[in-house]
Design a protein that fits this description.
Helix content: 25-40%
Largest sheet: 12 strands, mixed
Structural class: alpha/beta
Number of helices: 17
Distance between the termini: 20 Å
Radius of gyration: 23 Å
Shape: globular
Number of strands: 19
Strand content: 15-25%
């Protein structure tokens, strides 16, 4: 039997770059390595199925209307060893690929990203349509049968709360947002929130002006009735408080939303606090080992293809061995030449899925504090000594011979418009390593011996090797590079959150969003961890958000890239190669370049009888 190779579709929309899906990166290839998700909302990845024995071809990009018979079975999968965090996956601390692969199985919404990085409406959940161009207004209708697993209907009230947590105008006495949400875009673009009967199924949202990413702004929601009950409020009182911006009345609700679903690892909140709308519910969490989701018996739609999915927290360096031992059925190890060889050796047992992910590696400076916060000259010296081509040649080309150094942030190297954007925004200043020139700057700045702590989520061999390559070069330029990789770098209270680093090494995992970087590069945005601020960048992203013309969008993106290069926000490195392996007895497994990657349609995995 020959090894079957399935490639992930990697074409992004010509006008789109990334939808950044989370940001508590960890250790492997994607948000497993520290990929984050940005300004996306809701359950952005969902299902797709077709037959058995991997009959689905790469051009089949979205869900198939396949009736699945739930089998009394379980499938084990791992995308890395990073621990699950919370049922509330919409805070800056939890909006990561590691957390989202679970949350997206239990919370369903109005759409999902297909294997082609195109957004598909989830017509089983509901529908939406533009009902007015001026003012730009969209009407949403939730399916009549769509309900929470505790029997409570999903209603407009849930989506009023969904808007509230993204509304930075709802503030506490100190002027800080009440809700610790990952994004503020919804509240900025839609001033009045969803309009409609709170107990009904239809609502409208009216934008202040047209918004390029309107179709993905509303996704899944958290249960408003649970938040109300835990805040000693009636549901209508919660909705009224949101609509009247009664922040004093909302404080208990915001406190529960921010903290009530967070527990110690291995301890789940009470089941009644975690009703679900998706085909699975969370039912078991073994700290440091696994989290299990099981079929939601009250699911309003087509049931899942298998009864239980076990997400195991396995170091990606052990994935292939775990597959061979039967401890895992599906895994997404870090893409290395050794991994490829190991999977190919198992050709009679496993399918190799390969391609390029919409995930890109980068080094980000800390603008809040430290050596690089005030000195553009030192940032330039560091960029001059980082051996980007050597890193790609040694670590990425053995897996993907076509790999190249990435020279943009809002367009990836396989995008149709990438070369044109780079030619107009980047002058090649950091293509070649210039250790002597870098040392001259370091000496002129009286900064010889400056410690540069590079933080990342570890253990991660590829990132460890990356830091070693940088150290060998940049120490010669007068810096002292320190490897600060560790398990808690991206964890709540870790070095990224506290600003205890000079450079962060991680990746963003994306999808086809147009205004992908606004949540990362604009002033005071939730995912702008390094504290970068540039009024021109802020303005350009606002222009991009309200522009529908593809040529104008590209021109604006060029301007954004020019500013980010001039300021040296950070240093892009490369697009991630992608490898996954799946047991040959499991059908409907397909990889995708977008955020959830191999797990995106786990609801439709099914083991052959």
């Amino acid at each position: 039997m020959k090894l079957r190779k399935l490639s992930a579709a990697t074409a992004l929309m010509a006008t789109g770059a990334l939808v950044l899906s989370g940001c508590t990166p960890g250790g492997g290839n994607g948000d497993a390595d520290g990929e984050g998700n940005g300004d996306s909302n809701g359950s952005t990845d969902a299902m797709s199925a077709e037959g058995q024995q991997f009959t689905t071809e790469p051009e089949d990009t979205g869900k198939a209307d396949t009736d699945l018979e739930t089998m009394d079975d379980e499938i084990s999968v791992s995308i890395g060893e990073t621990e699950f965090i919370s049922y509330n996956g919409f805070t800056p601390e939890t909006y990561s690929t590691y957390n989202s692969v679970v949350v997206n199985r239990v919370l369903e919404g109005f759409g999902y990203w297909g294997t082609d990085n195109v957004w598909y409406a989830n017509e089983d959940f509901g529908s939406y349509e533009v009902i007015s161009e001026d003012p730009f207004t969209v009407e949403y209708t939730i399916g009549e049968d769509v309900s929470w697993s505790d029997g409570t209907p999903v209603t407009v009230a849930d989506y009023v709360l969904d808007w509230a947590y993204q509304n930075a105008e709802l503030t506490n006495a100190d002027g800080d947002p009440l809700f610790n949400g990952i994004s503020q875009t919804y509240g900025e673009r839609v001033l009045e929130g969803p309009q409609g009967d709170p107990e009904g199924k239809t609502f409208t949202i009216e934008y202040t002006e047209p918004y390029a990413d309107w179709e993905i702004l509303v996704g899944s929601a958290l249960p408003a009735h649970v938040v109300a009950e835990q805040s000693d409020m009636e549901l209508d009182e919660l909705v009224t408080a949101v609509r009247e911006a009664d922040t004093e009345a909302l404080e208990p609700a915001a406190e529960f939303w921010n903290e009530g679903w967070f527990t110690d690892p291995g301890t789940l909140p009470d089941e009644e606090l975690m009703p679900v709308t998706g085909p699975y519910k969370i039912d078991n969490w073994q700290a440091g080992e696994s989290l299990t989701v099981s079929a939601n018996e009250e699911y309003w739609g087509t049931g899942p293809g298998t009864d239980r999915i076990v997400f195991r927290f396995v170091n990606d360096g052990q994935h292939v061995q775990a597959l061979e031992n039967g401890d895992l059925n599906i895994a997404r190890p870090q893409a290395t030449v050794d991994t490829r060889g190991q999977l190919e050796r198992l050709e009679d047992q496993f399918v190799l899925h390969e391609g390029e992910a919409a995930t890109w590696e980068h080094l980000d400076f800390n603008f809040n504090d430290g050596a690089f916060s005030e000195s553009l000259e030192l940032r330039e010296a560091f960029a001059m000594c980082v051996p980007r081509q050597q890193i790609v040649s040694n670590l990425i080309e053995p897996v993907n011979p076509e790999a190249s150094v990435l020279n943009a942030r809002e367009s990836l190297s396989f995008d149709e418009n990438y070369e044109e954007i780079v030619s107009e925004s980047y002058d090649g200043a950091y293509d070649e390593v210039d250790v002597e020139g870098a040392r001259e700057i370091v000496e002129a700045e009286d900064a010889v011996g400056t410690e540069v702590r590079i933080g990342y989520a570890g253990p991660n061999p590829r990132r460890t090797d990356t830091v070693a390559e940088i150290k060998a070069s940049c120490d010669e330029a007068g810096f002292e590079i320190i490897d600060e990789g560790g398990e808690d770098f991206f964890a709540p209270g870790g070095a990224l959150e506290t600003g205890d680093y000079e450079v962060a090494l991680f990746a963003w995992a994306g999808s086809g969003q147009i205004v992908s970087g606004q949540n990362i590069y604009s002033t005071d945005r939730p995912q702008n961890y390094g504290g970068y601020s540039n009024e021109t960048v802020d303005d350009l992203f606002n222009q991009l958000a309200t522009t529908e013309d593809a040529d104008e969008q590209q021109e604006i993106i060029v301007g954004i890239e020019q500013e980010l290069w001039a300021d040296l926000f950070g240093i892009p490195l490369y697009v991630h190669p992608q490898l996954s392996g799946s047991d040959i007895t499991i059908s409907n497994v397909r990889d995708t370049a977008s955020q959830d990657q191999i797990v995106w349609n786990a609801e439709q995995w099914q083991r052959a009888e």
